[in-house]
Design a protein that fits this description.
It is a single chain. The protein is α+β, with helices and mostly antiparallel strands. The chain contains 16 helices and 29 strands. A hairpin with a 5-residue loop joins β2 (69-70) and β3 (76-77). It has a five-stranded mixed sheet with strand order 15-16-20-23-22. A five-stranded antiparallel sheet has the order 17-18-19-24-21, with no helix packed on it. Strands 4-14-12-11 form a four-stranded antiparallel sheet. It has a single domain, classed as Glycosyltransferase, CATH 1.50.10. 54% of the residues are buried. It starts with a helix and ends with a strand.
Length: 645
């Protein structure tokens, strides 16, 4: 949605704005907590190719994560910003399909993005968000919002939000070592274990529902009367779900995923046998055959090869089950989880990382329009599952990761304020931007500026959602998941075990052990500047013919070997450099979404042209407009990268 050159300019402009904002803020400035939240590391300045740099995307995401919140309402996050045909609005009553408006996922993403960028934007807001979050944890281990939120009524705790909060608390402890985060996490894990509903040898959490301290389960979605259609199976808690597609969101598994992840992660970290036993019983529930129906027939598919319904929900469930497998060494499940991911690839467009919200069309009687648009939640969960499976040795999905990150993930981020303003100005009535300005707005950017850097969804080439009358939409859940995926991709670019650096993705990154400079997609060229590694292993993308690879090295003592798509470089010393070059040719792929055929032209794994580029609708923002030009030489730019310790 933005050019990479524009991203760089926005990056520098936002840094200046952030400094001004921080200097004017006095909410928590200078406190010990703020100091502990500042990432520890060094800044490295260098000239690098002006190609995709995910740290610029991360800076923008921090803006939306910390400014798309309602400070007057306990720092809950706005679920959705709609703009285009209608005036930009964040009114609660307009919300559809909520994941809950807890900042739990935002709080997990923010420490990671600061590790990427070194940004200290709105640290006071981040601290206040967490202060509010832990203040709502009661002695029973429930996370109870005083006034409820868009899905859970007042006085009840939503297990999915509690699970995400546990993950966030562990992330905060990893950042600053403060024991209060572990204390809060232990409470929530205890609550998840205590209030899980027993079903024989299994347990579950009633979907779209919250539990009170007395054990009563409540569900009162404030948005349900706003839906265009009613769900085929209405759910009443706490009864045992009869199928995956019950309720308004239509995904029982989604509401089990975060609790399972929290139970296995914290259970292992705390050596908590009760949490691990609860996780095992919950995993058994999630493996029930009737949650994994064959997309091509009415039969159940307990092997996960086929399923139907919410794509993001199933991908999140598969990620949680894989976390369980890796924590318990239950390797028998890995092949089934891999088959589930392969089925998601069949339902989506892995060449660019686009997945539909619902698949196949009209599954379980849900409206066909839900299969015509995609969401960042699905793209992000697909990326993170592909990384997890690759790390687990269950497959080599690094090209899936690269394609999704280089294309749909960054395109579905709203990083071009001018394009956002243009879409909003065509609305009815037209937007008067001076009326959107307020005292807490960066340089008069108004309401739209608060959500700059957020993520949304739409068709493969346009950011508009059909059930919202094709308005452009920024979603809190998509923003959180997109931010988490940005970090996971950036972290996976290169890893280090103390002597060997592994390069999985040919993207720009500065790390303590290695600096990677990528000329892709303009040129098939990557330079590696060594800092600490003795050996470097580099994975070549699938489109690269190993026979065409050339490695230039300054020091003759460096030894280069090649096996398939992997290069191994031995004998490296600090400050040694190597340059890898290969042919980068164009190719064309076609795919169909909602009976419309698209033709995408790739240079390597990056889309450089796609037809049709956009729908003929002036109210939505077109994607893939400013992509790398054919035959262009890669310019260099001076960048400052933060290298976290």
């Amino acid at each position: 949605m933005t050019t990479w050159f524009a991203m760089a300019q926005l990056f520098m402009a936002l840094i200046g704005c952030f400094v001004a904002l921080l200097s004017s803020s006095n909410a928590r400035a200078g406190t010990e907590l703020n100091d502990k939240l500042i990432p520890d590391g060094e800044w490295v300045e260098a000239k690098m190719p002006a190609t995709l740099d995910l740290t610029a995307n991360a800076v923008l995401a921090i803006n939306c994560l910390t400014r798309g919140v309602d400070a007057a309402n306990g720092y809950l996050v706005y679920e959705r910003l709609c703009f285009g045909r209608q005036a930009p609005t964040t009114q609660w009553e307009l919300q559809l399909f909520p994941t809950g408006i807890s900042p739990c996922m935002h709080l997990a993403a923010l420490p990671q993005l600061r590790r990427m960028t070194g940004s200290d934007l709105n640290l006071d807001v981040e601290a206040a968000m967490m202060d509010a979050q832990i203040s709502w944890i009661d002695e029973e281990g429930l996370l109870i919002y005083p006034d409820g939120d868009s899905i859970i009524p007042a006085g009840a705790s939503y297990p999915s939000a509690a699970g995400h909060t546990v993950v966030a608390l562990l992330e905060w402890h990893a950042r600053d070592g403060d024991e209060q985060w572990l204390k809060a996490a232990r409470k929530l894990v205890g609550g998840l274990s205590k209030y899980a509903v027993a079903a024989g040898e299994q347990v579950y959490y009633p979907p779209e529902s919250g539990v009170t301290p007395s054990g009563q389960w409540l569900s009162e979605p404030r948005w349900r009367d706003k839906l265009l259609t009613k769900p085929p199976v209405v759910y009443q808690p706490p009864r045992e779900p009869s199928a995956e597609h019950v309720g308004y969101k239509g995904s029982v598994l989604y509401d089990q995923a975060a609790p399972l992840t929290a139970l296995v992660t914290a259970g292992k970290a705390f050596n908590d046998p009760v949490a691990m036993e609860t996780a095992t019983r919950l995993a058994r529930f999630m493996l029930r055959p009737h949650f994994w129906e064959n997309s091509l027939s009415t039969e159940h598919a307990p092997d996960f090869v086929h399923w139907k319904g919410s794509v993001a929900g199933h991908l999140a469930a598969l990620r949680a089950l894989l976390a369980y497998v890796r924590a318990t060494n239950d390797d028998a499940l890995i092949q089934r989880i891999t088959a589930g991911y392969e089925h998601a690839r069949e339902l989506g467009v892995p060449a660019i990382g686009w997945y539909p919200h619902w698949a196949p069309t009209r599954a379980h009687g849900y409206p066909g329009m839900l299969s015509t648009w995609g969401e960042t939640c699905a793209t992000a969960n697909g990326i993170m599952l592909a990384i997890d499976l690759s790390d687990a040795g269950a497959g080599d999905y690094w090209d899936d990761v690269a394609r999704a990150a280089r294309n749909q993930l960054v395109e579905q981020q709203f990083g071009d304020l001018a394009a956002m303003q243009a879409a909003a100005s065509r609305g009815s009535p037209p937007i008067e931007f001076d009326k959107l300005a307020s005292a807490d707005v960066v340089q008069g950017q108004g309401l739209l500026g608060r959500f700059l850097g957020g993520f949304g969804g739409g068709k493969p080439t346009s950011a508009g959602i059909v059930y919202m009358d094709n308005n452009s939409v920024i979603d809190a859940c998509c923003t959180a998941n997109g931010s988490l995926a940005l970090y996971r991709v950036w972290e996976a670019i290169t890893r280090f075990d103390g002597s060997t650096a592994t390069v999985n993705l040919l993207l720009n990154r500065s790390s303590p052990w290695l600096i990677i400079e990528s000329w892709l997609p303009h040129e098939g060229k990557v330079r590696l500047r060594n800092r600490q590694a003795k050996r470097i292993r580099i994975r070549l993308p699938d489109h690269v013919d190993p026979a065409d690879v050339k490695v230039a090295r300054i020091v003759e003592a460096i030894v280069v070997t090649q096996e398939g798509q992997w290069l191994t470089v031995d004998g490296m010393k600090p400050r040694d450099e190597i340059v890898i070059e290969f042919n980068s040719t164009e190719r064309t792929e076609r795919f169909t979404v909602d009976r419309k055929e698209y033709k995408a032209t790739f240079m390597g794994n990056t889309v450089i042209d796609i037809e049709p580029r956009r729908d003929d609708d002036p109210y939505v923002i077109p994607l893939y407009v400013n992509r790398p030009a054919r035959g262009a030489m890669t310019p260099l730019r001076t960048v400052r990268h933060f290298v976290s310790n």
